[in-house]
Each structure stands twice: as structure tokens, then as C-alpha cells.
Amino acid sequence: MAHGTAGTPSLAAKHTALVRTQLDTEPQELVPFSLFLEGIARIAHDENLPQPASFLDFGCGAGHYSLLLDRYFPGRFDYLGCDYSEAMVDEARMLFPAHRFVVNDVLHNTLDLDAFDMICANGLVDVVGDYRTALDTLLAPRAPFVLLNRQKLSEGRTRVVR
Predict the structure, then answer these.
(1) Half-sphere exposure of residue 91, counting CA atoms within 13 Å on the CB side?
(2) Where are the domains of the chain?
């Protein structure tokens, strides 16, 4: 387990412990994961989506959404996770060595986002200081599908667009 200062668990390790506990239960019963799975299920069956479709998980944290894709949509997506935190990317690489992970910041993107069939951001836009730049980065590419999950961008009531 990665550690922070003075032997305390790092943020990446704490994040991993929480997510693993959630994923060891029935993730389809937990709202953030169930909404993600519902959104992906709608997209995965699109006949225009290549097999496998290139999938970018922006703000991937410790890479736990790659596990959901493997479990519920095996072989459907070619996954790449990116996060601005090197510690999170290191944790993701350790936990999910079959997938690719890179350090990349939504506010200073260096990836060719036009190369992806699907871009996903889970709980990312609302935690960055400059959400407009984050949205511009995520919505500007030619990717036919962009899934923004777990975003709270207004003080008003959250709504679901289907």
C-alpha cells in the first residue's frame, strides 16, 4: 500500500480502499456505478461504435471504472485511463496492469482526444477550479460519445438527460 508522510496511507491508497469495498459488493446497486453502467450499456450497443471502441477515462483515479468495463462489457472497449495525479496513476497501474494509464490534466491536456470513440469523466468537472476549460476539453473532440457522470454543476436540482 502506498503511504503518505509519516507512514500514513496516501490519498491514492485511501481512495482505492474505499472503491474496492464498494466494488466488492454489487456495484450495480450503488447509484454512481449503476448510472455509469446504464450509460455505457446504452452506448455499447450502438452499431456505429467500433469493436473494440477506444475509451478514455478522464480523471480515472485508481482506475476502478476499468474493472466495471471488464466485468460488464468484456472486450467491448480498449481502455485508457488518465489522471493529473501521478500517485493515482501509479496506484491504477499496480491494481490493473492489463490496462493503460497516463498522467494527464484536463486543464492542460496533452492527449489527442480526437483519437477516442468515447470519452468519459466521472466526478471530474465539478472538482476542478476552471470547469469551463474542463468542459471545453471534454466536449471539443470529435468523439461520438461523451459521458459526464457524477457531475454537479449547479446549485439547482440535478437532472438526468436520456
Answers:
(1) 26
(2) 10-149
